[in-house]
């Protein structure tokens, strides 16, 4: 089954359908939630940032894996 | 009739291109995966371990005991001690770079097996072609560096002479 949810520009996968936008929105919402959660438990700004950046990279990785497998493909390498 | 004769003369005097049947046949060298897509995913696969290792190197080698880097160790310790996500550290430091190496290697490598290519009967050739794609090669090298760093760390931590 061919899924055309995302289109790629450089290293970023942009949504190309409503499902893609929903996934992007969920990823962004989860990133905001993790930031608020980490900020509530941490004792300093650096503590918040280090954990948040790590989580943000993991969210970006999962989002990119979804984008990689559901990308709109038109070109032959 | 005259027209036919003229046409036949024209056809006889045509320059026919010479074809060398023993010459190297042209071959479309298709890679298994798309190079740009593999590079895009490869970036995200090495971003997490690179971030972790950058913090560790800054902490130890530049002796910058800033809380930012100290917090990275707390995070790594937290990952190891938390049941359910204790498998995360080896996945981040080993599995992700290895996946990056595989997808980028498949994107720039073409393997071809040919029999009797060099003219000798029974000769067998295994031809490996590597495309020069800067980003894919760079990502493979970075991933290999991360994996070797982790292996070196594991060996030095666990092997001791008694």
Structure description:
By secondary structure, chain A is mainly alpha-helical. Chain A has one domain. In chain A, 64% of the residues lie in helices and 10% in strands. Chain A contains two helices and two strands, in the order ββαα. In chain A, strands 1-2 form a two-stranded antiparallel ribbon. Chain A is elongated and about 50 Å long. The relative contact order of chain A is 0.21. Chain B is mainly alpha-helical. Chain B has one domain. Chain B has five helices and two strands. Chain B has helices at residues 2-12, 35-61, 67-81, 88-108, 134-158, and strands spanning 109-115, 124-130. In chain B, strands 1-2 form a two-stranded antiparallel ribbon. In chain B, a hairpin with an 8-residue loop joins strand 1 (109-115) and strand 2 (124-130). In chain B, helix 2 crosses helix 3 (67-81), helix 2 (35-61) crosses helix 4 and helix 2 packs across helix 5 (134-158). The longest helix of chain B is centred in the first third of the chain and has 27 residues, at 35-61. The termini of chain B are far apart. The relative contact order of chain B is 0.14. The interface between A and B is medium-sized, with 24 and 27 residues.
List keywords for this structure.
heterodimer, A: 77 residues, mainly alpha, two-stranded antiparallel sheet, 10% strand, B: 162 residues, 9% strand
Write a concise synopsis of the structure shown.
The complex is a heterodimer of chains A (77) and B (162). With 77 residues, chain A is mainly alpha-helical.
The secondary-structure class of chain A comes to mainly alpha
Share of residues in strands of chain A: 5-15%
Number of strands of chain B: 2
Whole-number tally of structural domains of chain B: 1
Strand percentage of chain B lies at 5-15%
Radius of gyration of chain A: 15 Å
Distance between the termini of chain A: 21 Å
Helix content, binned percent of chain B = 55-70%
- Biggest sheet overview of chain A: 2 strands, antiparallel
Question: So what's the overall shape of chain A?
Answer: elongated
- In the sheet with the most strands of chain A, the strands line up as 1-2
Round the mean pLDDT of chain B to the nearest integer and report it. Answer: 79
Largest interface: A-B, 24 and 27 residues
């Amino acid at each position: 089954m061919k899924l055309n949810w995302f289109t790629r520009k450089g290293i970023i996968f942009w949504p190309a359908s409503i499902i893609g936008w929903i996934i992007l929105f969920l990823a962004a919402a989860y990133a905001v939630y993790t930031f608020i959660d980490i900020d509530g438990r941490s004792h300093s700004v650096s503590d918040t940032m280090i954990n948040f950046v790590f989580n943000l990279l993991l969210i970006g990785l999962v989002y990119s894996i979804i984008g990689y497998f559901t990308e709109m493909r038109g070109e032959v390498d | 009739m005259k027209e036919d004769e003229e046409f036949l003369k024209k056809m006889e005097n045509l320059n026919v291109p010479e074809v060398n049947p023993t010459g190297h046949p042209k071959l479309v060298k298709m890679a298994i995966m798309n190079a740009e897509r593999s590079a895009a995913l490869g970036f995200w696969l090495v971003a997490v371990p690179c971030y972790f290792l950058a913090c560790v190197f800054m902490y130890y080698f530049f002796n910058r005991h800033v809380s930012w880097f100290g917090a990275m160790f707390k995070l790594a310790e937290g990952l190891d001690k938390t049941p359910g996500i204790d498998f995360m550290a080896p996945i981040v430091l080993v599995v992700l770079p290895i996946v990056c190496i595989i997808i980028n290697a498949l994107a720039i490598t073409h393997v071809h097996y040919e029999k009797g290519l060099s003219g000798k009967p029974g000769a067998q050739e295994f031809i490996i072609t590597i495309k020069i794609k800067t980003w894919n090669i760079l990502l493979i090298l970075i991933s290999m560096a991360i994996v070797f760093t982790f292996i070196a760390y594991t060996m030095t931590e666990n092997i001791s002479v008694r």
